[in-house]
Amino acid sequence: MRKRVVVADYKSAYGDPVVKIRLEELERFVVTVYTREVFVLFREVLLLASNVRVVSSKKTSTCTLFEVAMYCQGRSWNISWGEMDDEFRCSCLRMESFGIPCVHIIGVLVRLNMIVIPDSLILGRWTKKAKQSPINNYVFSGEIPDAAYMSMHAAMLDDCRELVKLSCSYFEDYFEVKTKIANE
């Protein structure tokens, strides 16, 4: 399990998936924000978004209400969009349940010609920056990314184990290595 997490973190940190969908700008934005695994899930939502049709829209004093339906289906969903805080709500409640915007909201984003997903629709736990501590949010020149750090840490532990094994074979070697480490 731990190895899969490290591999998934590495894949998210290095290299981006290939853009395949006609909603290229949205997809490019999502690739930069979400981890690879969440992006794969979200890509399915983007694929289905082309089937969403905005049936009607009504502007109120506080928000805009949209009624959307899937192509050739009789059911409809209601989406509200608060322009002031850029917050979306859908009657399907997928965003509230899974933390990933639903196909209905993405259909409205496409209708509104948005090329980025508003912050209110991006949960921090699904982003590439989720595992960074608040102090590490600022990247300095020469700083090592998390996945590279994990790899270097594992390699250094292996080297240290080998050093301990060799230096503890004889008393003379042990004292020699101990004094070298203490002096440096």
Automatic annotation (TrEMBL):
Q: Give the function comment from the record.
A: Putative transcription activator involved in regulating light control of development.
Question: Is Metal-binding given among the entry's keywords?
Answer: yes
UniProt keyword Nucleotidyltransferase, yes or no: no
What are the SWIM-type domain coordinates in residue numbering? Answer: 66-113
**Family listed:** Belongs to the FHY3/FAR1 family.
Name the domain of life: Eukaryota
Q: Pfam families, alphabetically?
A: SWIM
GO MF term list:
zinc ion binding
Swiss-Prot/TrEMBL keywords: Metal-binding, Nucleus, Zinc, Zinc-finger
Q: Where in the cell is it found?
A: Nucleus
Q: Name one GO biological process term.
A: regulation of DNA-templated transcription
Question: This protein is called what?
Answer: Protein FAR1-RELATED SEQUENCE
PANTHER family the record matches = OS02G0262500 PROTEIN, PROTEIN FAR1-RELATED SEQUENCE 10-RELATED
Question: What cellular component terms from Gene Ontology apply here?
Answer: nucleus
- Where it mainly occurs, coarsely classed, is nucleus
